[in-house]
Write a structure and sequence with these properties.
This protein has about 400 residues and is of the alpha+beta class. It is about 50% helix and about 10% strand. Among the domains are: about 170 residues, no CATH class; about 90 residues, Nuclear Transport Factor 2, Chain: A.
């Protein structure tokens, strides 16, 4: 039994080691993605006009930009701007009436000066680029998709990393089992033999290092499946134990990319309707962000206090969804409510990113990213050393056999 599990651990580990090294190393960095991005690219986050009082409202800036550049639609934006900060928004291309295809904008994110409305900078978030503007988004996308191209409707990178995470879950249990060879010597699986040579320390780092943080490793593996294969794997599995409500997007069929849904309601109207619903629900926080998904014809409005836009602490912000054509309420996302399955699914990203505990949680996840990368490297080193030993033993055995045959022939 143990030898079979050890063999499975070896091959499972070899099959996912490089993927986990990339995920761990990038995860350690992107736990601080906003801070690093703002530091590297002040032109996308700091207003050129400085922290002056005469700022235009974000909705006014968005409306003016769309009027001056009708080829784009602002798809996601904050509804408040901190003093001295630029208005950083996400954009999508509208359809070119002459060609029937989306305009080629050359970017999907832009930063506007909140006083003048001037464009301070643009970039394509997630582009395969090492430029200063794209470095942090590049690492973020590398973390969950390896930048593998989509194959038709299949998001190949998401699927590959999701499958890696499924294998990782099984390997977590196998690794824990084989880490404790017997009940009498269980303490050996928790120590690091420092000062006794690199081979022993490498072995202990791989075995004991994994045992000490086993629960966190399993949590990362499970939440990774949720991030990459939530709809295909995690949600169906959770549904076996608890009801899980469908999201507003799962209740609708997406429009073709070349035929996006043009809303009849303005952003202001959608916000007004969402605010009225929020008051009925007893919510006190103001609307802090609005998005529009033209494939589904839905507005989404998030509610949170100024300065809380990144959702550190807890399960994130509540959202209300408004039909962009009729103004009807199309659903909601209220963290901490619903069935046990709903709350479990709501917790997946906050747990995976560490944001459920605020900055201490992010620090923990960053350290875990380093540890995952370390476990991948030490595992490969162990396999390499054992393989070299097996090859050398086989060579000695062949040499001994040849020598024995030569002696036999000499005697005859």
């Amino acid at each position: 039994m143990r030898s079979t599990l050890a063999l499975l651990h070896r091959w499972f580990g070899l099959s996912i080691a490089l993927f986990l090294f990339v995920a761990g190393a990038t995860g350690a960095v992107i736990a601080w993605h906003h801070e690093l991005d703002a530091w590297l690219n002040p032109q996308l986050f700091v207003a050129r006009s400085g922290p002056v009082a005469a700022q235009l409202a974000p909705l006014v800036l968005a409306r003016r930009m769309e009027e001056s550049t009708p080829s784009l639609r602002i798809s996601d934006m904050p509804l408040a701007i901190e003093a001295g900060q630029a208005l950083t928004v996400s954009v999508t291309a509208r359809i070119d009436g002459a060609t029937g295809k989306p305009f080629d904008l050359g970017f999907n994110q832009m930063a506007l000066d909140p006083v003048t409305g001037a464009v301070q900078g643009t970039r394509t978030w997630g582009a395969l680029s090492f430029s200063r503007e794209n470095l942090v988004p590049f690492l973020y996308k590398l973390h969950y998709s390896l930048h593998l191209p989509d194959v038709g409707p299949l998001e190949l990178g998401m699927a590959v990393m999701g499958i890696v995470s499924v294998v990782w879950i099984f390997d977590c249990f196998i690794a824990l089992w084989i880490s404790f060879p017997n009940a009498r010597n269980w303490r050996k699986s928790l120590v690091l033999r420092i000062g006794q040579g690199w081979p022993k320390l490498n072995f202990d780092l791989h075995r004991s290092g994994g045992v000490w943080v086993w629960g966190l490793l399993l949590m990362l593996a499970i939440t990774s499946v949720s991030m990459n294969l939530g709809r295909q794997v995690m949600k169906p599995v959770v549904s076996l134990f608890s009801t899980v409500a469908a999201t507003p997007f799962e209740q609708r069929e997406a429009a073709p990319a070349e035929a996006p849904i043009e809303p009849r309601l303005s952003r202001e109207q959608a916000i007004t309707l969402a605010q009225a619903e929020a008051r009925q629900r007893g919510w006190s926080d103001p609307p802090g962000e609005i998005l529009y998904t033209d494939r589904y014809g839905l507005y989404g409005v998030a509610f949170f206090k100024p300065g809380r836009e990144r959702g550190d602490g807890g399960l994130g912000h509540p959202w209300l969804y408004v039909d962009g054509m009729t103004g009807a309420m199309a659903g909601s996302y209220v963290p901490g409510t619903g069935s046990a399955g709903d709350v479990f699914m709501q917790a997946q990203f906050p747990l995976h990113s560490g944001r459920i505990l605020g900055w201490p949680g992010r620090l923990l996840i960053s350290l875990m990213g380093v540890l995952v990368a370390m476990l991948s490297v030490t595992g490969l080193v162990l396999w390499s050393r054992k393989r070299r030993a097996r090859v050398q033993a086989a060579a000695r055995k062949r040499s001994a056999a040849i020598h024995s045959k030569s002696k036999d022939r000499a005697r005859t």
